[in-house]
Design a protein that fits this description.
Length: 251
């Protein structure tokens, strides 16, 4: 199946206006040699205007790290999908484990955000994955299946084909621990098989990124696995050289 890998940088709440600009300068200098992957960055909301201005016309896409499940109204501190459109975002991350654990986002809310993102014309990057405790209990597949089912129930299987899935074992995020290529491949294959039980075409088409301490040193092996279609990159997306090395490894 021809799935172009997507390497997306999740900058989280890092940097400054100045450092965001210099990071993008570095990415833009090296990205021309990235042939086989699509590249995207997800900065903090407040830098989206700068990011749009710098990346317009370049091969690098951009997106946001979160969005409100509401369209507009009295929701202090929230950002609507239509507002992300004002900055020509292509992607939006939904259900990142930090949102789920630190901000209490449950499966139903994540599913609603997925739906709202698509309605706004954005491509949701849906994060799913188990905690260390869940892995040790042997319920990794149950957790991923449950998180996936919530979204399928909300939007229908066909709409899963319009988004991207990121398998992010929570124990590997920001910890320096990475799933082995085989561990990651097993779960990616499981996720694809879950989709295939409902729609083989969607299963074949959807890109499933791996996220969890992917770096310049381990990216090639992970990205070589049959069902790993790119990466969602946290820490290593904050240095242009490291991020570009991952993008190149996708070739
Ligand atoms: C993430 O937060 O999506 C992530 C994968 O982070 P890191 O690469 O730092 O583990």
């Amino acid at each position: 199946m021809d799935r172009k890998p997507l390497i997306a940088g999740n900058w989280k709440m890092n940097g400054s206006r100045a450092s965001a600009r210099s990071l993008l300068d570095g990415v833009l200098q090296g990205v021309q040699s990235v042939k086989a992957a699509e590249v995207a960055v997800c900065p903090p909301f407040v830098y989206l205007a700068d990011v749009e201005a710098m990346l317009q016309g370049s091969p690098v896409a951009w997106g946001a790290q979160n969005l409100s499940p509401e369209e507009s109204g009295a929701f202090t501190g929230e950002i609507a999908g239509s507002m992300l459109n004002d900055f020509n975002c292509k992607y939006v991350i939904v259900g990142h484990s930090e949102r789920r654990t630190l901000y209490g986002e449950d499966d139903a809310l994540v599913a609603k955000k997925y739906a709202v993102a698509l309605e706004a014309g954005l491509i949701p990057i849906l994060c799913i994955g188990e905690t260390l405790e869940e892995r040790e209990k042997g319920i990794t597949e149950d957790v991923c299946a449950r998180q996936l089912k919530a979204v399928i129930d909300e939007v229908g299987i066909a709409k899963l084909g319009e988004g991207v899935i990121a398998y992010e074992p929570v124990w590997a995020i920001g910890t320096g621990k990475t799933a082995t290529p085989e561990q990651a491949q097993d779960v990616h294959a499981f996720i694809r098989s879950q989709l295939a039980t409902e729609d083989q075409g969607v299963a074949d088409k959807v890109r499933i990124q791996y996220g969890g301490s992917m770096n310049a040193g381990n990216a090639k092996e992970l990205l070589a696995m049959a069902d790993i279609d790119g990466g969602l990159i946290g820490g290593a997306s904050l240095k242009a050289e490291d991020f570009l090395a991952i993008c190149t490894a996708a070739g």
